Inverse folding.
């Protein structure tokens, strides 16, 4: 009987609670409505942030692909006999400037979690500058400004140096990118040494240290083989007989970041 009585009391209590629910809802309806609105807004914000991050990632990947395409076009651009030198230089500058812009956009649009994309964008910036610095000079460039690059070689090499250095400083966890950046810095040092007539021992030392960094790292064996070959070449390149040779005359075989 006592158990039945307790059950009846609980049932009555529930009924009274349910009967009073409309009054309770009316009393707190503004607070309830506000809570529901806040929950809905929170859900919308989460979805917005997810969509925005994905859109940024997609945009960064597209820009990076465009920068890589411009770099390839710049490398493959050739001046034929009888061609228009002025138009050729315009095309060269266009690939260079467009590639830099796309690489910068990829760098800025990449979400903070995408270190690989950011590092690759910097490598593209370095490669674009390095490629322009080593592009063959057209006949007549000495007397015709329109046949010369807009930026001098030393500026282009400095730009390349800065981009490669940022990879090593900011994205040390990206194994391939860091390896490519060391090769890029080594190539820049070789170019600078060659520009100084081959007699700048400090630049040859700088190149050697970059290749040695690859040897001392956990880079793949193929890259270490390339680094060893570059170090072995330095004594010959630094001799007077090698004056006039740039780093481009003894290619690194990976340019500095396009082969994986």
């Amino acid at each position: 009987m006592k158990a039945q009585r307790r059950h009846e009391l609980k049932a009555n209590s529930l009924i009274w609670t349910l009967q009073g629910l409309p009054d309770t809802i009316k009393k707190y309806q503004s607070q309830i409505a506000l809570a529901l609105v806040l929950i809905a807004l929170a859900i919308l914000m989460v979805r917005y942030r997810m969509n925005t991050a994905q859109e940024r990632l997609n945009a960064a990947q597209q820009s990076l692909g465009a920068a890589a395409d411009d770099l390839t076009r710049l490398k493959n651009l050739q001046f034929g006999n009888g061609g228009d030198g002025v138009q050729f230089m315009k095309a060269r500058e266009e690939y260079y400037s467009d590639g830099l812009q796309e690489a910068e956009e990829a760098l800025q649009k990449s979400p903070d979690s995408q270190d690989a994309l950011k590092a690759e964008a910097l490598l593209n910036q370095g490669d674009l500058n390095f490629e322009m610095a080593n592009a063959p000079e057209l006949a007549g460039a000495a007397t015709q400004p329109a046949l010369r690059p807009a930026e001098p070689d030393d500026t282009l090499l400095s730009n390349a140096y800065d981009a490669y250095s940022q990879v090593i400083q900011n994205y040390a966890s990206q194994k391939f990118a860091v390896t490519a950046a060391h090769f890029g810095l080594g190539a820049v040092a070789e170019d600078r040494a060659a520009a100084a007539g081959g007699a700048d021992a400090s630049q040859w030392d700088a190149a050697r240290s970059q290749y040695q960094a690859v040897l001392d790292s956990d880079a793949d064996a193929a890259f270490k083989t390339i680094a060893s070959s570059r170090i072995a070449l330095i004594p010959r390149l630094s001799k007077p007989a090698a004056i006039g040779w740039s780093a481009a005359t003894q290619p690194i075989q990976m340019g500095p970041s396009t082969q994986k």
User: Anything to note?
Assistant: Residues 2-76 form the longest helix (75 residues). The radius of gyration is 31 Å. The chain has one domain: 38-74+89-137+145-249. The chain is about 75% helix and 0% strand.
